[in-house]
Amino acid sequence: MHTPLVSAVAVPEHSLVRSAFKTTHLADAFATPLPAHFNGSAEDLARLILSSPAPWFHGLMRARDRIMSVFGVKTSAQLRDASVAQGFEHIDFFRILARTPDEIILGEQDSHLDFQLSVLIRSQASGLGREVVVSTVVHCHNALGWAYIAVISPVHKRVVRSFLLGAAKAL
Hints:
- By secondary structure, this protein is an alpha+beta fold.
- It is built from four helices and seven strands; from the N terminus they run E-E-H-H-H-E-E-E-E-E-H.
- It has a seven-stranded antiparallel sheet with strand order 1-2-7-6-5-4-3.
- A hairpin with a 6-residue loop joins strand 6 (113-123) and strand 7 (130-140).
């Protein structure tokens, strides 16, 4: 079976998250080719990407929620519940901030940092087909935000790659 390729790329110039924050403290992006038969939207892809994480991801989120709640940071359940209570559209615990047919922006604001995540469909640089690019940008508000980013950044990269691989295999 062919294993899809996930590559680190620059945050796309035309992505809405490029200008999300005056100051960005973390920015990364990863891309994988889309099969020729895929004709869905960026929102369809975001739902697919976030719908079936690797089993180890749930353990990471439980640990993150337990540890960060001590510092007054919202848990994933609190983020999800707040979106529901306030009538915001969301995918899992990510609030939908903006959408076009080719891009959806998810994100949240919290006491320690603000983040936005983009799922963007674009033409591949080779001109042969399309790819999905998942970009994350973060703005830290304080030392807790900086510490959080320092700890999760290496894990974040593995998580995004894992989510993209899972979605690529499902397509």
